[in-house]
């Protein structure tokens, strides 16, 4: 699968209901147990960081809100419909919100498998010293891989100067990842998560 560096182009908003703890077997499509999540898109704006776009939850009648979990189909509990408009927080573990996300130049407007994006909201000194650009790659199974982060099996866990994955940008937006540099002994530059084990070589994700 070819990768592509995607660009943030605006803000998207949706009506969101989430509830339950470890009840959904496919929490937000990640394949793991967690909370139920249901969203209905409201629209997009070209303004970056428009966190007020779409208004407030109390501005929308009950009929506008989603009725079932997007990932397992479980119905939204009736308590959500009884929730007082404008109430903050949750009601019996159920919450309604106007949810915001970054809009990207992809068909869905969201990071998709093969997308690489800059997580510029991470602080400069997050995890490793000297990281100027935090990169996240969406793997073929939808899992987010923090390319500039620390591997779970890092053998230098207290060291902040090495890189668990050594990243080479061979052309603008084309990345190759290996262990050729100041690195630890974790793996051989591969990425291993539930449902995917592979490499990012010369701009392509490939399974082992």
Structural class: mainly beta
> Structurally, how many domains make up the residues?
2
Proportion of helical residues:
under 10%
Show unreliable segments: 81-92
SSE order in H/E notation?
EEEHEEEEEEEEE
Radius of gyration: 20 Å
Main pleated-sheet profile? 4 strands, mixed
Give the termini distance in whole angstroms: 13 Å
Percentage of residues in strands: 35-45%
Q: What's the count of strands?
A: 12
Task: List the strand order in the largest sheet.
Answer: 1-5-6-7
Overall pLDDT: 91
Number of helices: 1
Shape: globular
What does this structure look like?
The protein has one helix and twelve strands. By secondary structure, the chain is mainly beta. It folds into two domains: 10-104, no CATH class; 115-207, no CATH class.
Features:
208 residues, mainly beta, 2 domains, four-stranded mixed beta sheet, three-stranded antiparallel beta sheet, 1 helix, 2% helix, 37% strand
